[in-house]
Design brief:
30% of the residues lie in helices and 17% in strands. It is an alpha+beta fold and 204 residues long. The protein folds into two domains: 7-150, 60s Ribosomal Protein L30, Chain: A (2-Layer Sandwich); 158-197, no CATH class. The strands form two sheets. It has a five-stranded mixed sheet, with helices on one face. The longest helix has 15 residues, at 23-37. Bound molecules: zinc ion (ZN). The site of zinc ion has 8 residues, from helix 6.
């Protein structure tokens, strides 16, 4: 079981949301399960994912926390770990895959440590191990989050960027970060690519 779902149900949810039944999300489901089981039921928790790969989607599928509502943050250490913490006190726990517990689970170990090339991976055996192992491959440690450091920056007043003309929080500078450059991988700043007549996009 992953929260109130069977393994198969959860696999269906993952397929619909993520596009494929990624092993990382299936393991992530057990990690979320374990995390919530370690915390008092009545609390309100925020989440930090230490990787942007897969794990955030497990959190978004199984908890009210999402990137969009700000209750889920990604702080990319590259470790397959997540932290749940009380948003007021910062008290919480961190769940991670514990290499010392991977012995009985060779397929999971090979997947996590990339010991076998992906095309030689036995997906059926890997999924069976993930289902059987559940959260047995994880360890949990207590953490204290410095919530002061995570305080949401209030947006502040909005101005129209003198360069591109779009609204942005004026506290970000005299022109918007896009026009300042270095943020976007596509042309930013004074209109580069030319406008599209949106009527052509909506007419059939
Ligand atoms: Zn601008």
């Amino acid at each position: 079981m992953v929260r109130s779902h069977t393994f198969e149900e959860f696999a269906g949810m993952v397929k619909a949301f993520h596009g494929s039944v990624a092993p990382g999300i299936m393991i992530g489901g057990s990690m979320v399960d374990l995390a919530l089981g370690c915390l008092p039921k009545e609390g309100l928790y925020d989440v930090i994912c230490e990787t942007q790969k897969c794990l955030p989607d497990a959190v978004q599928l199984l908890t009210p926390c999402s990137i969009g509502n700000g209750w889920l943050k990604i702080m990319d250490t590259g470790r397959f770990a997540l932290a749940f913490y009380d948003k007021y006190t910062g008290k919480g726990i961190r769940v991670f895959i514990d290499p010392e517990k991977l012995g009985p689970w060779p397929e999971i170990k090979a997947w996590l440590l990339k010991l076998t090339p992906k095309k030689e991976q036995d997906t059926a055996r890997l999924m069976k191990e993930i289902e059987e192992a559940g959260s047995e491959i994880c360890s949990v440690e207590r953490i204290q989050v410095a919530v002061d450091l995570l305080k949401k920056t209030k947006g502040g007043p909005i101005a129209l960027c003198p360069s591109c003309g779009e609204p942005y929080p004026s506290g970000r500078g005299a022109i918007c970060p896009a026009c300042k450059g270095g943020v976007l991988p596509y042309g930013s700043g004074p209109r580069g690519g030319g406008r599209v007549n949106t009527r052509e996009c909506t007419e059939d």
